UniProtKB/TrEMBL annotation:
Gene3D superfamilies: Sulfite Reductase Hemoprotein, domain 1 (3.30.413.10), Sulfite Reductase Hemoprotein,Domain 2 (3.90.480.10). NCBIfam families: CobG. GO terms for molecular function: 4 iron, 4 sulfur cluster binding; metal ion binding; oxidoreductase activity. Keywords: 4Fe-4S, Heme, Iron, Iron-sulfur, Metal-binding, Oxidoreductase. Residues 1-25 are annotated as: Disordered. InterPro entries: Cbl_synth_CobG-like (IPR012798), NIR_SIR_4Fe-4S (IPR051329), NiRdtase/SiRdtase_haem-b_fer (IPR005117), Nit/Sulf_reduc_fer-like_dom_sf (IPR036136), NO2/SO3_Rdtase_4Fe4S_sf (IPR045854). Residues 1-14 have a biased composition (Polar residues). This is Precorrin-3B synthase.
């Protein structure tokens, strides 16, 4: 059992309350339930033993609550200034390397997925080395991120990024499409590059961001100017068709040649260390060799046979994990709720109410966003239905983000009836074969607001 006694050689960590910063072992963030630390493993994945050691340390040094974020990072909650150094020591003793510096993301199955056009990992390694060796060092926004995507079955096209590098087939092999800002559906393309030109081009763009100041993001760059600088000698790049489905981790995925991946996710982004440890013991006994963190709160288990994956899937479900794409919990996005000092809603409890009375809303056509406050951390973009904690109860935003002016309100006593009212609205008005999203769109915001307030 890991001890949470702080090593004497360690100093008390500084804490960060700045929302633009990312919590880490060096700068944990103060939240409503103590300090929070976010970890990005530096390796492709963790062994079951390594992840068990981390979960054990989370229980010994914190509340035992473990989260996997929407971007696939791991978070440990309920820490104290005295226990963070012990967590860091336990991670070191387990041999887990933690990534630092600028966030460079590759798909969770990079190098494993036979559907990818190219393995993005060598580019990521080269770019990290170039950034680390740059003098003077770059001063960039704390949340700046770079996506390098090989465009396999498990892609990152729904993950926003300041810079995106995406493999594209060409007549003579493949090239890399370089874009600024947004998701793959909203970015501004600036160059189509051979592999050897990618790192110099990205470094040039990062230097431009550095010159704009430490708050500058990809959206602040002049795409036309960069396009002219980088693309003049290779001609125009093609218009790319982006039809890939959103990545959803849950399920048993067969990549051929006996390569099976068990995909699972954390319900409402959280699990307790005891549940994770128990599952990992079983999974390792069944042959699991590696666990990879994945976007949308996912864990991908490698090394299992198809038969063993089916057994492990049932075990994961018994421990509360999401294991199937049709689980309605996949379609509820929640923040930490009352574990955050800013929250005015117990998002996990309201999610339970929604599961009880709102099955008609959870057909997979839309995501219901439950946000403890207007910051909307769990889902910054617009949702068909967003419920926001308010001083007087609960505010409903229709077709908007948590920060948008709400369409309707209800109080603490009326929330279950309000959710049931939305469900009844869809049930009574949905045409045969129509989705919940389509039905709500057709009915309009005024009828949705009335159903919510009248319950």
């Amino acid at each position: 059992m890991t001890s949470c006694a702080a090593p004497r050689s360690q100093t008390k960590p500084g804490t960060s309350m700045r929302r633009g910063a990312c919590p880490s072992l060096a700068t944990p963030m103060q939240t409503g339930d103590g300090l929070l630390v976010r970890l990005r493993p530096a390796t492709d994945g963790l062994t079951p033993a390594e992840l068990r050691a981390l979960a054990d340390a989370a229980a010994a040094c914190g509340s035992g609550i473990i989260e996997v974020t929407a971007r696939g990072n791991l978070q440990v909650r309920g820490l104290t200034a005295a226990s963070v150094p012990a967590l860091a020591a336990a991670i070191g003793e387990a041999g887990i390397a933690v990534a630092t510096g600028i966030v460079i993301e590759t798909p969770p199955l990079a190098g494993f997925d036979p559907n990818e056009i190219a393995d993005p990992r060598p580019l990521a390694v080269a770019l990290r080395a170039a950034i680390a060796g740059r003098r003077p060092a770059l001063a960039l926004a704390p949340k700046l991120s770079i996506v390098i995507d090989g465009c396999g079955r498990f892609h990152l096209r729904d993950s926003s990024a300041d810079l995106r590098v995406e493999a594209q087939n060409s007549d003579d092999g493949f090239r890399w499409l370089l874009s600024l800002g947004g998701t793959a559906r909203s970015e501004r393309t600036v160059a189509l590059l051979e592999t050897e030109r990618v790192v110099p081009a990205v470094m040039e763009i990062l230097a431009g961001l550095d010159s704009l100041g430490a708050a500058a993001r990809g959206r602040d760059l002049d795409a036309d100017r960069i396009r002219k600088r980088l693309s003049a000698d290779i001609g125009a790049f093609p218009t790319i068709e982006r039809g890939a489905l959103p990545f959803l981790p849950a399920g048993i995925h067969d990549f051929g040649d006996g390569r099976i991946v068990l995909g699972m996710a954390l319900a409402f982004a959280q699990t307790h260390s005891a549940s994770l440890i128990a599952f990992l013991h079983h999974a390792e006994e069944l042959g699991a060799t590696e666990i990879r963190l994945a976007p949308r709160h996912g864990l991908l288990v490698l090394g299992l046979s198809r038969e063993a994956a089916a057994v492990a899937q049932r075990l994961a479900l018994s421990h509360g994990f999401l294991v199937a794409a049709d689980d309605p919990r996949n379609h509820i996005a929640t923040c930490a709720g009352l574990a955050c000092a800013s929250a005015l809603m117990d998002t996990k409890a309201v999610a339970g109410l929604l599961l009880d009375v709102g099955a008609g809303l959870l057909d997979g056509s839309l995501a219901v966003h439950l946000s403890g406050c207007p910051k909307g951390c769990a889902r910054p973009t617009a949702s068909a239905l967003t419920l926001v904690g308010a001083p007087s109860g609960y505010a409903l935003v229709v077709n908007g983000a948590a920060s948008v002016a709400p369409s309707a309100y209800t109080d603490e006593d009326g929330i279950k009836a309000a959710l049931a009212g939305l469900n009844a609205l869809v049930r009574k008005n949905k045409d045969a074969g129509e989705s919940a999203r389509s039905c709500l769109t057709r009915l309009g915001a005024a009828r949705i607001a009335a159903a919510f307030e009248q319950g």
